[in-house]
Amino acid sequence: MKLYGEKKRGNKSFEIQDLTIACNIDELDKLIYYLSYARVILAGAKYHDHDDVIKAGEDKLICHRHYRDWDKNWKEKDSDIIVVTSFKPIFKENGEVEWVDIEND
């Protein structure tokens, strides 16, 4: 797992060593629920053609999900959490393709 940060109103991401989540218990519960939801959606993204797929190619499939899109109460001043997963194709002899989790670059 790699963690990336982004400055407010900036588009340049940078890798970070540590991540601090400052929240109350209700917010923590909400975050856990979101991550569980994102896991289900992103695990299925490799089988579907929808908005989560941000890059598709013969060698890699990259999918993502934003917290801001999931939380109807999200405000511009709030932090966003973007979960990114990558898959690579394994081509089987019978012609089927199996998408396998790989480490993000």
Brief overview, please?
The chain is an alpha+beta fold and 105 residues long.
Beta-strand proportion: 25-35%
**C-alpha geometry:** elongated
Helicity, as a percent range = 10-25%
Number of domains: 1
SS-derived structural category: alpha+beta
Write down the overall mean pLDDT. 79
Low-confidence stretches: none
Helical run tally = 2
Main sheet overview: 4 strands, antiparallel
Q: How many beta-strand runs?
A: 6
Ends apart, CA distance between termini: 10 Å
Radius of gyration: 16 Å
**Secondary-structure element string:** EEHEEHEE
Q: For the largest sheet, list the strands in their spatial order.
A: 3-4-5-6
Task: Please name the defining characteristics of this protein.
alpha+beta; 105 residues; 6 strands
What do you see in this structure?
It is a single chain. The protein has 105 residues and is of the alpha+beta class. It has one domain (24-102). The protein is built from two helices and six strands; from the N terminus they run ββαββαββ. The protein has helices spanning 25-45, 67-70; strands at 3-6, 13-16, 53-56, 61-66, 82-91, 97-102. The strands form two sheets. A four-stranded antiparallel sheet has the order 3-4-5-6. A hairpin with a 6-residue loop joins β1 and β2. The longest helix is centred in the middle third of the chain and has 21 residues, at 25-45. The protein starts with a strand and ends with a strand.
Walk me through the topology.
Elements: E1 3-6, E2 13-16, H1 25-45, E3 53-56, E4 61-66, H2 67-70, E5 82-91, E6 97-102
Antiparallel strand pairs: 1-2, 3-4, 4-5, 5-6
